[in-house]
Amino acid sequence: MPSSNTSRIRLFASVDLIGSTAYKNSFEQTDRSNGQKSPPWYKVFEEFYLQFVDALKGQCQASSVWGGTQAVGMEFFKAIGDELVFQQTIETHREAIEYIKALRASLAEYNEKLKGRSLPLRVKGSAWIAGFPINNAEIELPDGRRDFLGPSIDAGFRISKFASERKWHYRDFSGYVPFKPYLLA
Question: Residues near 108 by Cβ (< 8 Å), separated by ≥ 6?
């Protein structure tokens, strides 16, 4: 666990499936006591977990900032239902911009894949930056995993609720990266 006195800036990203509850509820309830391992909608969600993580990693590796190195990519942090959360320590303004560009490109790519399969689902995303240890904290959970707490983390999840397929949200709660939309184009 990093020292609580070590200053760092982290970029967080949330990617969520739009229409997931309605999609799952569109299937009849089935009795799986006969050995069926998963409900009929399960495969779509499993693919989302695996394929979106790979798409984001690919977009990050394609960035000229890192020269296609294999070690770069936002870290998958955790899933909260059908929402994927990523995080990455950033060291430069340019890194933050490139990660955000990669996230947006991954969202567009995955939405095209969903449309191509005629699924009534889309993905939406948001990103936010939080400073540590100023105002936020990293904690170790009893099972050895880590989590992040603080007002910037809470606010980031709040803004993610307002995102849509067409409306993307970014917020810098650290004051680290001045937001200039033209840099993301």
Answer: none
